[in-house]
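We modelled the chain as a single entity of 455 amino acids. Its sequence is:
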Amino acid sequence: MLVSSTSAGCGPQLSLVVARIVPANADSFEHVWSGNLDAVKILFSNRAATPRDVDDMDGGSYLNYALRSRKFDMSKFLLELPGTNASLEDQFGESPIDVAWQLVLSRKTDPTFDAWLRSRMAIQERLRGRHLTTIHKIICGLCKHDLEQELETSTAEIDTPDAGGWTPLIWAAYCQSWSSVLLLLKYGADANIANRKGQLALHHACREGLGDTVSSDCLYAIGCLATATADINRKDVYGDTALMYAAEHNNDPRILETLHKAGASLSETDLTGHSALHNCIYFDNARAVETLARLGADINRTSSGDTPLMKTIICNAHNCMRTLLRLGANTTTLDLEEHTIIHLAGLHADAKTLWGLASAVTVLGCVDPSAVDLSDQTADGIFWTSRLVPRDEEAQNAWTNLMSLAQVEWKLRRDSELEKLHESWASMENGDTDSSVESSLANSIEIYHDAAEIL
């Protein structure tokens, strides 16, 4: 595939790059988005990932992903790789440089990273080509005029988009300037205008990393935007709703409750099949997981074969993992490659995740630690050969402990099932054939051979 990009050297230039298309839900993109730098370094060292990789959804690069998710250490690593092109645009014309200057203008980077971005990327040139109105500039801090006075003078440009399709209201939401959001709505700004990626002001208000506790101003502004938005479940080009962004980037239950009360659906999924509950996992938003479950979200819903619990192991989201286990998440689901959660732990889990699973091993009793996947590999075989995460002494000790406990729990469960089977046969011999005994026998007979082998 040929991907065009612009670069700033001796004036505007056009270059063609031969890109390698990778599924958007591949491990490499998952690890970049969640900030697992160790795993990403291993993937690049093994050439399982390259700077030329773009996703199959919109042509976004790893650097684009890292900047959009504000993984600054990841961004630095990727930008310093030979062959990384910061001007490489996705199919909507957005490059890592675009994302970088959006971050700089919104004042969401620390001073060190801000200076580093400015030194490495042609941010000023990008800014000149964005065609910002005076209202845009006021909101972004590029102009010292008073916003309300400007709106009193004229509202002719209140909904004028910049070159990326961003209206002043979208910029205000992105910059978390809640007073500007309220002023723009007061003067008639249209909350239903989307940028080139289909994102409304509400999407950006909910995706901006508001943290564990948001201010009352933020909550009120999001409520006003939700009221002003005609379709609370409107999706952007990635299939994300405002609720899905809120679940991913925030951990305050009140935002999710506000959106749900306004009609946000808990069951919508994005283009990769992720639900809002899956999205909580990337930034380990355990309170968001608990809130969505309380509101009625399905904690066992699969996405490309992965349940939210599986995703916590893949992303090493320790708090979310503990929460889902406490809420009774299903531990027996297999993914598309017939991996159990113990297989996934062998492939992805760090030491803390392994110790966490071991502490909840009683709920793993129904998972066979010696089961094989579609490639005929056991979890133990995967662990000792995996190169996705460091296998230091602590991880090795945690794994050995987990496997020992899991084997004991598995045998105890099989012992119990075999005992029930014997009781059922005895009842049948005594002429007791009521439905409860028949049901018990039917449930037990399928595991008879496994139980016999263990004993």
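As a brief sanity check on the tokenised model: The beta strands are 2-9, 11-18, 20-22, 53-55. The first helix runs from residue 27 to 34.
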